[in-house]
Amino acid sequence: MKIKNIWTHVLSAKLSQPFAYSRAWYDTRMAGLVEIETDDGLVGWGECYGPAWMTTAVVNAMAPGLIGQDPLHTDRLWLETYARLRDHGQKGVTIEALSGIDIALWDIKGKHFGVPACQLMGGAQRTEVQAYATGLYRRKFGNPTDYLAEEAAGYVAEGFKAVKLKVGFGVEEDLAATRAVREAIGPDISLMVDANHAYDAVAATRLARQIEPCDIRWFEEPVPPEDLPGHLALKAATSIPLAGGECEFTRFGFRELLVSRALDILQPDTCAAGGLSECKKIADMATAFGVRYNPHVWGTGVALAASLQLLGALGPQTPPSLAPLEAMLEFDRTEHPIRQAILTTPIKPVDGIVQIPQGPGLGIEIDRNAFKRFAVA
Ligand code: CA
């Protein structure tokens, strides 16, 4: 079997209402998808996290080096492609492009052998995962403490056992929002906060100390990803576990993070950090360092499916025991018109639980008709 064609798709959809995290407003959702076809007619799908115009351009530039190669040789193709661009792209868009390609190759590999991808990554460790609701962004209108509390209570009513609140809007406002959300969800639901690295260590420490009584499961991206000493200073000052890693890439990048012990929980994005091949390696490295691993997920149903296959193959986050801590699926609950529309069967949480698709490869079917609505010329 040989790789015959590699196509990219840039999709875009306008939102009905804009929403904001700590550093920007969103009014559009975009997606960069990779489609790989083999000479015996198999098609694999992948997704690149990051700016779709840039990631798909890099995928197209990588394609000539992959066409004619055996798509089952995922590790070799990953390393060859990485090595070809190593001098120019050890992180960022280059690795995001490689991630989309790698995921599409795993989709092909699973389809070739007729099993879900996780079956080929060490075997399925589970068939379902608990999802947490990512939402609780800021809106143009209304009082944040009111609408955030109401939104959080809605996730609990849907069956979610964990929710994540966006912070980074100023310590006082964050404190009020965190208290309001904790009050709304009650004591038994996990609450995480995410600053999207909008703070320095001084402000992050002030916030962390004040929200500690709200029983915070993790504080995500409190400070910029490059600021390892800032992470360490914060870590020494709070009992809240620190999470991050959606801006880090490959085994090489995560080696530095692990050695520094800056984070308690690694959150590589499967569509950014190097794809399924690389993220399984990073997860295994994390266990050797005694650091937890909980993937970052953001994107369409292809990204969700790839993350689910990885989660299916991961061991527990903590050492094996009768009650190990399992990784959760990050489930973005904000508006994304493309997310489920391109899947023939949507991936949906039921009572906060998501089933890992059991079909071959990523376990999903793509609805090409839906592309027409979102495709960017
Ligand atoms: Ca995040």
Number of helices: 11
Assign the CATH class of the largest domain.
Answer: Alpha Beta
Strand content: 15-25%
Bound molecules: calcium ion
Mean pLDDT: 97
Gyration radius, in Å: 20 Å
Give the proportion of residues in helices. 25-40%
The number of distinct structural domains comes to 2
CATH topology title of the largest domain: TIM Barrel
CATH architecture of the largest domain: Alpha-Beta Barrel
The CATH superfamily of the largest domain is known as Enolase-like C-terminal domain
Structural class: alpha/beta
**Main sheet: strands, sense, barrel:** 9 strands, mixed
User: Which H/E pattern describes the elements?
Assistant: EEEHHHEHEHEHEHEHEHEHEEH
Poorly predicted residue ranges: none
The count of β-strands is: 12
The general outline is globular
Salient structural properties:
alpha/beta, TIM Barrel, 11 helices, binds calcium ion, 3-stranded antiparallel beta sheet, Enolase-like, domain 1, 12 strands, 9-stranded mixed beta sheet, 377 residues, single chain
Write a brief caption for the model.
The chain has 377 residues and is α/β, with parallel strands linked by helices. 37% of the residues lie in helices and 20% in strands.
Describe the protein's architecture and organization.
- This protein has 11 helices and 12 strands.
- It folds into 2 domains: 3-114 and 368-374, 2-Layer Sandwich (Enolase-like, domain 1); 119-355, TIM Barrel.
- The two termini are 31 Å apart.
- It is globular and about 60 Å long.
- The strands form 2 sheets. Strands 4, 5, 6, 7, 8, 9, 10, 11 and 12 form a 9-stranded mixed beta sheet that branches. The protein has a 3-stranded antiparallel beta sheet with strand order 1-2-3.
- By secondary structure, the chain is an alpha/beta fold.
- Calcium ion is lined by residues 194, 196, 220-221, 246, 296.
- Calcium ion binds next to loops.
